[in-house]
Amino acid sequence: MVTGDGAYIKKINRSVILKNIIEHGRISRADLSKITGLNKATISVQVASLLDDELIYETQLEHNTVGRRPIMLSINGPAGYVLGIDLDYNQIQYTVSDLQGNPVQSDTIQLETDDYDTIVRQLIEQIKHYSAQYVNSRYGLISVMIGIHGTVNKDESILFVPKFQWRQKALKATLQKELSIPISIENNANLSAYAESVYKHQKNSNLLNLNISSGIGAGIMIDGKLHKGYHGYAGEMGHMIIFPDGDRCKCGNQGCWELYASEPSFFAQLEKEQGKSNIKFDDVQKWIDTQDPVTYKVLNQFIKHISIGLNNIINLYNPETLVINSRVLRMYPNVIDQIKSNLHSSMSQYQEIVISNLGNKACVMGACALSIKRFLQVPELILTYANAVELQAAQF
Ligand SMILES: [Zn+2]
Asked: For residue 68, is it within any domain?
């Protein structure tokens, strides 16, 4: 067992060293030793192995005023790539990231169909296309993670995707038959929560991310880990009942939160009040800019309905950070103050409420980050929030 223990310790040391190299961006062997408490010989052996595997690279600092210029270690981003996919209702987003978490390629492909077999064929074709592009890097395209807007079982099969009306689909197994690259399936709100914790709220281990778009879903991080529940469906908060005997929901109940606080409900109400049909996000932005009273009235009602659910969630989870990812709310000035003014309970406690800056890139970025974490086998991941991501997100 001694050899087994030795191998185990080596593996732990390697992951701790990698974690710190990622976190610091550039770090010397001496600082690694100081931070990890590992002796210099151990650091030296592990670093040599990581260099050999081309997972890290060395640079020498240019401007060090005194003494020898230390050799710095960084993650070798282009050593390998991961592909994050957001399989949304009317479009599929693809983002390829290097091992430093920098997106190097993003494409959005419109979906004309909800037919399962057709979409599977499209996915296979695209994954092969990306895989071929990175074949010359050390590790190539390492893995693919797909975000699903529905319930995903713990074995990564799909239970239900409401918008597609897909039930019990073994998407991972189907793709895996055709592709040699490892495929993972995860709920999109979970991936968004993971992205927020890796890229933005890195020191907050109790984070709840709420996606408010065509429905409402939550990703819950408790003590730094995704909380999935017994079957894997935790976070389906759009279906908590906020109005007894309210509107009929597709889930079979009445008065579900997302019937009052999701984007389709907002647009339906706005169209009714404005007497117009086919209102777009740009129209909403224009009316907000010109302080249109009808739009503000509908927005305030929307925020009131959102706040009812938020109050329940805060009471349930006492989150450190509550991130809300909503395109409509992002447009609204002082939205956080408006939300807070609707949270009256002296019982509900939270540290901060913020609107996501990752926007509709959150799912693909979370998918890439989770793939990187698994590949590097690090206990936790902190990645630099690349400006490129924010710019892309701002464009929606
Ligand atoms: Zn429901």
From this structure: yes
Percent of the chain with pLDDT over 90: 75
* pLDDT score, position 384: 76
Q: How far is the CA of 19 from the centre of ligand 1 (A)?
A: 41
- Does one domain contain both 110 and 229? no
Expressed in angstroms and rounded, the spacing between residue 253 Cα and the centre of ligand 1 is 5
CA distance 116 to 133: 26
Q: How far is the CA of 170 from the centre of ligand 1 (A)?
A: 24
Tell how far the Cα of 220 is from the centroid of ligand 1, in angstroms: 19
Task: Indicate whether 317 and 256 sit together in one domain.
Answer: yes
Residues 114 and 225 in one domain: no
Interval between CA 150 and ligand 1 midpoint (Å): 13
Domain that holds residue 140: 79-193+360-393
CA of 258 from ligand 1 middle (Å) equals: 7
Q: How far is the CA of 189 from the centre of ligand 1 (A)?
A: 17
CA distance 200 to 334: 20
Question: What is the structure's pLDDT at 103?
Answer: 93
Phi, psi of 226 (to 5 degrees): -70, 130
Tell me how many domains the chain contains: 3
Answer whether residue 198 is part of any domain.
no
Between 394 and 68, the more confident residue is 68
Task: Count Cβ atoms below 10 Å from residue 324 Cβ, excluding itself.
Answer: 20
User: First-to-last CA distance in the chain?
Assistant: 54
Ligand 1 centroid from CA 249, angstroms: 5
